[in-house]
Amino acid sequence: MNVRRFFPPEALEAIHRATLAAEEKSGGEIVAYVVGRASDYHEACWKAAALGALLSAALAGLLHELGEVWGGWGLAWITLPVLLGLAAGYLLAQASYPLRCWLTPRATQLRRVSQRATQAFLEEQVFATVDRTGVLIFLALLERRALVLADQGIAARVAQQEWDALAGGLARGAGRGRAAEALQAAVEQAGDLLARYGVERRVDDRDELPSQPRLRDE
To answer: Are 162 and 193 in contact (CB under 8 A)?
Structure first.
């Protein structure tokens, strides 16, 4: 998925400016991070293959009952529809990330999003601020899921329920096709929360983490 088509240059610049403004209000360091998908969900290809095989077998049986179209070697009529349906289902899922995601249970999607967000937290070293005041705002476009991971200095002040509400608004905005606007609003809201709960700036405060949003196509 080409994430940049959801985030044109002017939108990225607006999110960057919103991040700088939000960080002026407090000692927090905000990292906005967007991925096209949190996982490849390859295992769903086999589920699609099984469904394709079952549907093809059912369709072949229905055609036989309605028109007695089977002829020739019976074994071929029994096995070929199943094999063709299996192959068609697998290849269709292989070519479609949305189909794979749709075939994946919600609990698995949530776990993959959480794992990918944790990976991003470590990858971007959100933990590496002086007062442990980093905040990751994570959005997975395919899954339409968002998470906020706050480091220790933030978690001690801002309740997780506040971040969950922010993430919910971001996910809903992305689901309506307004990912860039929703991410900018989430960054602004994060700045307000950090200021409200007294995450104060140090006298020698500096920008410890880059403020540009991160985009990853995978």
So the answer is: yes
pTM of this prediction exceeds 0.90:
no
- β-strand pairing of 214-216 with 134-140: unpaired
Q: What letters, b where the CB count within 10 A reaches 16 and e where it falls short, cover 184-217?
A: bbbbbbbbebbbeeebebeeebeebbebebbbee
Q: State the DSSP H helix or E strand holding residue 192, giving kind and residue range, or none if neither.
A: helix 179-196
CB proximity list for 61: less than 8 A, separation 6 or greater: none
Provide the edge-to-edge strand list for the sheet that holds 145-150. 145-150, 134-140, 29-35, 214-216
Which residues 6+ apart lie within 8 Å of 183 measured at CB?
7, 15, 32, 34, 137, 139, 170, 173, 174, 213
pLDDT in tens, 36-70: 999 999 999 999 999 999 998 888 777 766 766 55
DSSP secondary structure of 38-77: S---TTHHHHHHHHHHHHHHHHHHHHHHHH----S-HHHH
Q: What is the Cα gyration radius of the chain?
A: 24
69: how many CB neighbours lie within 10 A of its CB? 10
